[in-house]
Write a structure and sequence with these properties.
The chain has a domain of 65 residues. Helix content is 13%, strand content 17%. It has two helices and five strands; from the N terminus they run E-E-E-E-E-H-H. Strands 1-3-2 form a three-stranded antiparallel beta sheet, with no helix packed on it. Strands 4-5 form a two-stranded antiparallel ribbon. Strand 2 and strand 3 form a beta hairpin. The longest helix is centred in the C-terminal third of the chain and has 9 residues. The chain starts with 17 loop residues before the first strand and ends in an 11-residue tail after the last helix. The chain binds iron/sulfur cluster (2 copies). The site of one iron/sulfur cluster has 10 residues, from loops.
Length: 106
């Protein structure tokens, strides 16, 4: 069975993704600078995650079918911490018309 996130991506198309500017490459972090916008002096946000139709600029593929994070190894901390099977995950899946994940904890 493949990982459910590979055929989902709902969280990357549901929530704002904010993180410290220190996670940007230009500040010594890993997140590519061109994919995030500064929100304050200390915070930045993944592009596309504050659009009316949320979709992170790093997401490739079609939500609910086949997706990938284009910067998986360099994604910001909120994405590292987001847990498949969590309440927020289920909420995002519901928003995109996807079934509840049953008994999955990754
Ligand atoms: S964490 Fe949940 S909402 Fe995000 S891609 Fe995985 S299954 Fe989908
Ligand atoms: S950086 Fe990757 S994991 Fe994070 S929201 Fe964007 S596409 Fe999803």
């Amino acid at each position: 069975m493949s990982h459910p996130c590979l055929s989902c991506g709902a969280c990357c198309a549901s929530f704002r993704v904010d993180f410290s500017v220190h996670e940007l490459q230009e500040r010594g972090g890993k997140v590519p600078d061109g994919l995030a916008d500064a929100i304050t002096d200390s915070l930045c946000r993944m592009r596309g995650t504050d659009h009316l139709r949320v979709r992170c600029a790093a997401l490739t593929g079609k939500v609910g079918q086949k997706v990938a994070c284009g910067i998986y190894e360099w994604r910001p901390s909120p994405c590292h911490e987001f847990a498949a099977g969590s309440d927020a995950c289920q909420q995002a899946r519901q928003r995109h018309g996807l079934p509840v994940l049953q008994g999955v904890v990754f």
